[in-house]
Amino acid sequence: MDKPKPLSKQASKPKKFGVLAEYDSAAAIFKACEKVRDAGYKRWDSYTPFPVHNLDKAMGLKPSVLPFIVFACGMTGAACGLLLQWWSSTIAYPLIVAGKPLFSFQANVPVTFELGILFSAFGAVFGMLGLNKLPQLHHPLFNVARFTRVTDDRFFIAIEASDPKYDLDKTRKLLEATDAVAVEEVDD
Amino acid sequence: MSAHHKHVSDIEDKQIQIDKASLWAKLPMIGVVLAVIGFAVGYFAPSPGGVFAEDEHLWHAKQWTAYLNAFMFVMSLGFGGLIFVIIQHLVRANWSIVVRRIAENAMFTLPFIALGGLPLLMGDTGQNVFEWMHVEEMLHDPMLKAKAAYLNKEAFGVRFGSYLVLWGGLSFLFWKWSRAQDNAKTTEEAEALSYKQRFLAPIGLVIFGLSMTFGAFDFMMSLDPHWFSTIFGVYYFAGIAVSFHAFLAIVCFFLQRSGKLQGVVTPEHYHDLGKFMFGFTVFWTYIGFSQYFLIWYANIPEETDWFQYRAHGQWLTLSIAVILGRFVLPFFLLLRRSWKRNPNYLVWMAFFVVGMQFVDMFWLIQPPFAHHAASAADKAGAVEVATYFQNSITLTGADVGYFVGFLGVFLALFGWSLVTSKLVPIQDPRLEESLNHENF
């Protein structure tokens, strides 16, 4: 969290989030994404009102690491489930039920399975939120009035100022050359 | 938004037609040769001696067990073809249209292979494998006497006859309509044929579900007539489903190796086949474990017996191999998306999965034979023979012969159907959607 800055300083030199470009069709943003990708930008994103097929390829996105998180969580869950049952049935409450051994793997399969599933689901949901840096209370793009149409009929690309290749003029020119309807700088 | 949208008109004829000179075109002949050799080896295989040396009946029982084993394995490919076609029409699936014709060719074999059940109904042959066909002994057993209304040869004959009619009827209709569509003159005609198949699908699903379940009861569950499991048909179905998607992946892979279906079947389709292999692997485990779990918990002697004689010596090793090969290995080895999308990798897994279907059938069908042999030897006081059958798996020339024989029949029929039609239903109105199918 940034510390609150003196009002006067903030007013004199506002920090910039990056540059935002607006497009009026899925085809336009698709081509624009390919250009931004080929220009070598890393910290940027596209915003569309609906999933645009193959846009991830046009953006050059690598496969998510989420599956590994889910797998690790699932295996941990299964191990925890088994351990919990082993401990409770042999150490904490060693009761003989239906003449079965204190610990028999058969009786423990359902709970082991269910905890594997439960932890996988946690891994998937919270891992997804974490990787997307969600939840966020506010996003600088909401400072831009035209950005509200992202949930309706407009498509946007935002290249962030933190990108190592970011240069206001060059980045702006790049986006202007991609059939953008409008390009503007966004305050942080 | 993909870079290149494919059209049905782009598909060249040579991509979907088997070359006359290729090995594929000889598949029917190869199948016939394999069938003749296989059945001859299976039928005339000499008794291996040892525990079989003094008992001709025991050897015949083993031979017919091997026959039934190979029969049920190859039947699962035919069943797989039928249920695959039914489900794809039922849910109006787009992705699968490019591989559906291959499934239809497999479905075509079903009624012919089902005829392989006929010898078990003729004369006293069935007595070699079905304990309940020994009527005299059966009527002395109160448990079996109670089941006599179902487990008798006449009722079995009626059921078997209706299976032939139902499986034959369904396979023939789907097969005929799909082939007729290839020659449809107008789009309306093609649409009408698609509609007919969609109309039959839900009816076919109910017929398939019931007849396949009772078929599994009759041919496999009744091998141990004291035992019963209401989930048994679903267990057989789970094996059918997982191995049939694997079978499709194998056929697609080798057709593409010979230059067919280029750009028609894509990694997207392999990915989906892989997903179904993975999904039904988990489904098989769920069903298999549910069956075992309830019996283990309830601990009722006539139910636990079925697992008991699968838990000795080599049979125990086999039981563990089934768990590893049907669940643990395929589960972890089909987990990654990139693996399922790589045909070179997937085809190995597919071979393994189909191979495990045979092992699973072996595990279902052969232990009752060994169990009966052991009990009979025990009664006769032949302790060594009883111990042998309790602990040992017997693999003989009959097992190999009948396996090759039934596989030969399957290849001959499948190959004939493959060669005499196009490799994809080229006039299916939604073929283009399947060509351009992509997984998100």
TrEMBL record, chain A:
Top-level lineage group: Bacteria
Keyword Repeat: no
Pfam families: ActD
Keywords: Membrane, Transmembrane, Transmembrane helix
Transmembrane annotation, as ranges: 65-87, 107-131
PANTHER family named among the record's database cross-references: LIPOPROTEIN-RELATED, QUINOL:CYTOCHROME C OXIDOREDUCTASE MEMBRANE PROTEIN
Name of the featured protein: ABC-type Fe3+ transport system protein
Originating species: Enhygromyxa salina
UniProtKB/TrEMBL annotation, chain B:
Transmembrane annotation, as ranges: 23-46, 66-90, 102-122, 160-178, 199-221, 233-255, 276-295, 315-334, 346-365, 400-419
Keywords, comma-separated and alphabetical: Membrane, Transmembrane, Transmembrane helix
Superkingdom of origin: Bacteria
The name this protein goes by in its record: Quinol:cytochrome C oxidoreductase
Species this chain originates from: Enhygromyxa salina
Organism placement in taxonomy: Bacteria, Pseudomonadati, Myxococcota, Polyangia, Nannocystales
